[in-house]
Amino acid sequence: MDPNQAASVAFYILSALFFDNFVIVFVVTVLLSALDFWVVKNVSGRILVGLRWWNEINDLGESVWRFESLDQESLARMNKKDSWLFWWTLYLTAAIWVALAIVSLIKFQADYLLVVGVCLTLSVANIIGFTKCRKDAKQKIQQFATQTIASRLAIAKCGLIVTSDFKMNPTELPCISFVLD
């Protein structure tokens, strides 16, 4: 678990032992969770899985998701254990916040449910963002592979034309104008 994730969860759990003031618990837990959100979104995700995401509002007032991922070669060099750890801690943190929400419900602590709700929202936002980013990266890799295969087929087709028609000038191949976007 990321140190920031552990810090926010640990502070929330241990605060019941040391503090009687809800405001302190709320402010510190939410600040630690917000710090965790930012670090996971902008640093850990980039280093451990090569992904980064953000959401913008365009001029029409619509929500637009933006994704960044490393190129295919860099993604292939990423450590699989780091990637595994990243995804498991992302989901584990959300599961812990859900469990703490259930405890708050059972104890009828609506104020502490608010704290857990904010932290759970930040955690789920990272899960959604990185899941969408991973799907976008996979789609880009598939598009690249499809384009590469299609261009290889076009080159092979041009090679067959050259070998079957000896009168054709190789600089005037009709296949050269075939461009994949």
TrEMBL record:
InterPro entries, per database record: TVP23-like
Segments traversing the membrane: 12-39, 84-106, 112-131
Keyword Transport: no
Membrane topology summary: Multi-pass membrane protein
GO biological process: protein secretion; vesicle-mediated transport
Subcellular location: Golgi apparatus membrane; Membrane
UniProt GO cellular component terms: Golgi membrane
Record key words, sorted: Golgi apparatus, Membrane, Transmembrane, Transmembrane helix
UniProt entry tagged with the keyword Transmembrane helix: yes
Similarity annotation: Belongs to the TVP23 family.
Known function: Golgi membrane protein involved in vesicular trafficking.
Listed name of the protein: Golgi apparatus membrane protein TVP23
